[in-house]
Structure formats: C-alpha cells, structure tokens
Protein 1
Amino acid sequence: MISALRLLQSDMRLVRRDAMLFFYLIAPLLLMSALWFGVPAANDVLIAYFAFDLSEYYGLITGVSLLLVSLILGCMCGFMMLDERDDHLIEYFAVTPLSRKGYLVCRLATAVILSVIYDAVLLLFAAPEPVPITHILYLLPMAALEAPLIALFLVAFASNKVEGLALSKGASLMVAVPAAAWFIGPPIKYGFGIFPAFWIYEILRGDSGQWQALLLMLAGTGVHLLAVYVMLQKFLRRQD
C-alpha cells in the first residue's frame, strides 16, 4: 500500500512536469465543455440554416465523446508506462515490494478510476441529452475498461514513446470504426461486435429496453474483458 502511494506521488510529479501528460489530464474537461456548449449551439445553427436536426444523433455524439475521454486517459497512462519502460523502471518496480504485478494493478487501476470519474461527469452533466441512470450504470463498466485497454495496446505494440504516438492515432480507429454501425441495421451491424466500443454505441441508441440494455452491457463487458486480457498477455510476453 505504501509503495502504491509512493508511485501515485511520483505520477503526480511527472504529470506536473510533462506538459503533454498534463494536457491529457485536462483534455477531457475541454471536451466536456465543447459537448455541453457547442453541440446545442451547432444544432440551432443547423436547424436554422440547413433544416438539419442534429438531435437525432445526440446518442452517437455522446458515445464518441465518452470513448474519446477513455482514449485520452488510456493514452496518458500508456505513455507513462512507455516512459517507465524506456527508463527501465518497470524492471526496478519488479524487485521492490510493489512488484511487477502491483505496478500493473496500480497503473491499470489509475486508468479505470480516472475514466469512471470523467465518464460519470460527462454522462451526468455534459451529455447533450439526458441519459437514464440505469444506462449510465451499464455504460460505466465498459467505458472504464476502454482506458486500460488503450494503455495496454500502446505498451504491447509500441517500442518507445514515438511509436506510441503513432499507434495512438490507430487506436482512435477503435472509436471511429464501430461508430459506423450506427447507420447500419441488423444483422449486419452485429459484425462490429468484435470492437468493444460497439456495445457502448448500442446502449446509447436509446431504442433498447432495460433488460435488453442489461444484456448488451453483459456482452459488451465480456468483450472488453477479453480484449484487456489479450492485450495484457501480449504486454507480459513482450516484457519477458
């Protein structure tokens, strides 16, 4: 526990010193502000000048924003892990009381906790249309797992921070590609179910009842856990 607190203190100092990491920490707040103020204003303009009602896509916009928050936080944690690997700090943590397992738990738990906090704030206060509390409870477990999934993806495939930056662009496809299912009907759209983010979009469609949303959450959480497990094994093999 003491080792974990020391790691957290070290993280806080690192974020204060590194401008990019600090930006990643505040970027979700900027995104929420744009979502809260910008989307309704854009909708008013589109209706007035183009007779286009953006409100039909509020669920999609909320889903993209939710996943972008997790993407940002996942990249932040992933870059921190890449820095620590480059500096051989992961090997150092492995022989301390924290241990490599404890280090990974702390890193991934940080990503999950930050994601839950930011995502809850977004869904409760910044979404362009109200999201039912039950749906928020279904969305948070999946959205929270997106952050460690992205972090593990970066450290599993990137050799250094420069490669991590390039891969983070590719990671954004995990958000963008399943969004296409919003415009595709069943059964074809379920082919996107291999993407963890797909299940978040499906709940935010708003056309599923409580029990159907629960089933979507269970399926989506299972897909997320499987993806996290695969990325974790890939990372551990690379470390060995």
Protein 2
Amino acid sequence: MDSPILANWGVVSSVVGGAVAVLLYFVKNWRAVEELKMTCQKQEQQSAALALKVDDYHVSAVAREAKLREEMKLHAEQVRVESLQQRAELRKEMTDLVLKLTERLANIDKTMALVEERTKVLTEASKEQDSRNKWADRILARLEQK
C-alpha cells in the first residue's frame, strides 16, 4: 500500500505547512488590519471631538468678541453722551458769564455816563461860582473904594 500521499509525504507536509504558514500570515495581517481600522476609527472620533471643541472655542471667541464690541460701543456712546452734556453745561456757564459780564459792562457804562454828566454839572457850577465870586469880588472892591 503505497499511497501517493505517503510516498510524497515530504511534499504534502511542505504544502500543508506552507498553507498553514500562509493562513497564519493572512490571519495575523487580518488582525493587524482590524487593529489599524480600530485605531483609525478612534483617531477619527478624537479628531471629530477636537473639531467640535475647536468649533465651540471659535463660537465662544466670536461671542466674546461681539460682546466686547458691544460693550465698547456702549462705553463709547456713554463717553460721547457725557462729553456732550459737559459741553452743554460749559456753554450754559459761558453764556451765563457773558450775560453777567454784559450786565456789569452796562452798569459801568451807566456809571460812566452819570459821572460824565455830574462832571459837566460840577464844571458848569464851578464856572458859575467863579463868575459869582468874580462879581462879588468886584462889588466888594467897589465898596472898599467908596
């Protein structure tokens, strides 16, 4: 009984060993491919999570920027309103001061006119008094001569 399998036992064992080796190689590589797929899937999940975090950070940064811009606008508006109020107050004070100054100048003008008028009256009265004194001196001089 010489069977062909037994007669070619070395070849058969080599072929079976080779087939087993190839099968083990493919199983090993299949496991490695599955591990790579799992690793790739995990990295994709991590990448998606990081992308969500980046989006959240971006959205919050944009919201903060908008909030800060709004605050700056409100602050600028407040400063503008305050400056307008101060300017209006200063204008009112300046107007009041100008009116007071004008009133004082008018009073000074009236006083100066009164002083000028009284000076004229006093000058005329002084001239009249001088003429009376001269007249009285002449009368006295005539009386003394007689």
Protein 3
Amino acid sequence: MPSQSPSQPSQSSQPTQSSQGSPGRLVAAVPAITAVLVYAWAAWCFGGSSSPSTTVAVSVGGALVLGAGAAYFLLVDGNTGFFGALALIGGLLLTVAVADQAAARGETATCVVTKIREELRASVGEGGAQTTLYHHALRCPGGYPSSLAEDRRAAPEGGEVRVAYDAERRVAPAVEGSRSPWRPALLALPLLAAATAGALRGRRQRLSEERPA
C-alpha cells in the first residue's frame, strides 16, 4: 500500500494593511514645511544679492501659499480642513511679513514730508473695522525714497522724518527703527499651530473610523 502523504492545509496569508498614519503625519507637517519654504523664498526676494523680479517673487510666493492651503483643504476632512486651510494661509502670509520686517534697510535719509494722503482699509477678522494707512509724499536727498506708507503719521506736512531704506529697492522704506519681525511672528505662530493641530485631529478621527470594531 503506498503511503498517503498527509495533506498540508493551505494557509491563506492575510493581507497586510498599509499604515494609514503616514498621510496624516505628512499633512500635519505641511504648516511647518511650507512656513520654512515661504520664509526662505521671501527672505531671498527681500534681501538676496540676485533676487528675482517682483512679478516672479509674487507669483512663486503666491503659488506656495495658495498651493499649501489647497492641499491642506483637500487632505483634511470637514470643517477642520476649511478653517485649518484659512489658518495656514494666514500664517504663511504673516511669515512673509516676518521676512519683510527682518529685511535689511541699510541706508537712512532725512526727508521732508510734502503731503499726506489717508487711505481707509477694511481689516480682515476684526468685524469689518477699518484702519487708516497714511501715504507720505517725501522729498529726500537724491530723490529716493519718494513715498512712505505707515499706519500712523510719521511727521506733519512740512516736517522731517528719518527714513530707512534698501538702496536696491527690494523692500519698502520705513521710518527708522520702526520695523521689528516679532509682532508678525507672534501672530503667525498661533495660526500655524492651529493648522497643525487641526491636521492631527483629523488624522486621529480618520484612524478611529478605520479601526475595525
């Protein structure tokens, strides 16, 4: 009698479930990564020795900001994605302001204010309140700068003001000593943190929904 070999039961291998956490972790890193990229781009545009034209600077910077907001909105579900994208865009715009405030304005000039024009602007996120921007027409040695925009009167008409400016004209002139990157940085950090927290919250919700009962 030929010996009958025992039949080996075929074991069906269970498919391994790919980790669902990686996309969530990637989205949570979007605010920090894009903030670094936007700051690096803005700092180069404002202070680089071979900075690009204004058109290129604005186009690339705008694409980074809007692209990051759109990606966040598409990858994070529900209202969290919408409000998180708004927070991210606001934080990135303030990151540009940080680079602008930190940019070197190595030259100074004493200028005469020849005329002041007021411009009313609606403030975003303040219940529709309006703020006033004061455009100062200047007469400076050498002809530049010829204008100065501030949120207050830097000097009365006919008065003098000390203006700091970049000789390469990469950043707007400012009243000497009035620029500091800390204020926009302190406003940007909570927005970027809120966007990061929203992405992490969306990731936890997604993992809890996908976990088998």
